[in-house]
Specification:
Elements lengths: L5 H12 L14 E9 L3 H11 L5 E5 L6 H9 L4 E7 L15 H4 L14 H6 L4 H17 L4 E6 L8 H14 L2 E2 L6 E4 L8 H10 L7 E5 L6 H4 L10 E2 L2 E2 H12 L2 H8 L4 E2 L2 H8 L10
Parallel strand pairs: 1-2, 1-7, 1-10, 2-3, 3-4, 4-5, 6-7
Antiparallel strand pairs: 8-9
Helix pairs in contact: 2-3, 6-7
């Protein structure tokens, strides 16, 4: 889950409003829409939801948590679906109560990045307040990218889980350096207009998305951040330690993610794509157009 630190989210959203026009997006043409589905590989429930969206054959992008134990199942699903562009969801946090993950390099490899149990810290704020070492951050983020590349998937971009790897100028420089080293794009660095379904009410998600698409920009790529999951006992047990509003009895994490899955599978979205009223693009599209040289840091 990207779920940016709240001040950073506002900055990034404002930045997209003044970002330069993206090559290929033309005023008057059907708007270009980039669906980015986050937290792939987090668990089996998320992977099964991704498999359902993949079955539509819509082109979209996925940000994979290669630090998580279920990433290998995600790799097998994605290898069968070349229409999906793959990115690395660079993780420095592990935010679920009772379900935690740690660094690819292990506690001994990057000791400043973990808590006493060897897991990533549960919040972005907690990470930023810790005595993290930037050298260890760079080594760990590089290790996550290298695990992704070793999977055999074509990797197009990186982005920051919960926004932490982009949360300070120094962390941003590390992330940019890692992306350059491996020739990858960075989500939000192509002048995208950013929108997320994350905080929308469960019952309103589809309507909100359709309303947003009806007003989508035609001079920029419309990035829409989505989180999907199947409703399973595994997901029913998920509890977000950072967002109490996502843990309500009738509107918990599983309800939000199932609603976003149903939105991605809705006949209304399929019809917009089929009739060409929106044009779906991916981060592989963006990299083919502009390449790493086309990246522009969002204005802070």
């Amino acid at each position: 889950m990207t779920r940016l630190l709240r001040p950073l989210a506002a900055l990034l959203f404002a930045a997209t409003l003044v970002a330069p026009r993206v090559a290929g997006a033309q005023a008057g043409a059907a708007p270009e829409v980039l669906l980015r589905l986050d937290d792939v590989g987090m668990n089996h429930s998320v992977n099964m939801a991704i498999e359902k969206v993949a079955a539509t054959k819509m082109p979209f992008s996925v940000s994979v948590l290669f630090a998580c134990p279920w990433y290998q199942e995600a790799v097998e699903i994605l290898k069968k679906n070349p229409q999906i562009a793959v990115g690395v969801h660079l993780a420095l946090n592990s935010e679920w109560r009772g379900y935690r993950w740690g660094p690819v390099l292990g506690k001994g490899g990057v000791p400043s990045l973990v808590d006493s149990a060897g897991y990533f810290r549960s919040s972005g704020e907690g990470f930023l307040a810790s005595a993290y070492d930037l050298g260890e951050v760079e080594r760990e983020l590089s290790a996550q990218v290298e695990r992704a590349l070793a999977s055999g998937l074509k990797i197009s971009y990186v982005d920051a889980h919960m926004g932490t790897a982009l949360a300070t100028p120094q962390l941003r420089e590390v992330t940019e350096r890692v992306a350059r080293k491996y020739g990858l794009g960075i989500s939000t660095y192509f002048g995208e207009s950013y929108f997320t379904l994350w905080g929308e009410p469960v019952q309103r998600k589809k309507a909100v998305l359709l309303a947003h698409l009806a007003q989508a920009k035609r001079d920029a790529v419309n990035l829409i951040e989505v989180h999907v999951a199947e409703r399973t006992p595994e997901m029913e047990a998920i509890f977000d330690m950072n967002a109490p509003e996502q843990n309500a009895p009738d509107a918990g994490v599983v309800a939000h993610r199932k609603a976003e899955l149903e939105t991605m599978l809705s006949p209304e979205l399929a019809e917009l794509v089929r009739t060409g009223k929106v044009r779906l693009v991916t981060y592989q599209t963006m990299m083919s157009r502009l390449g790493p040289a086309g990246l522009k840091r969002p204005v802070q």
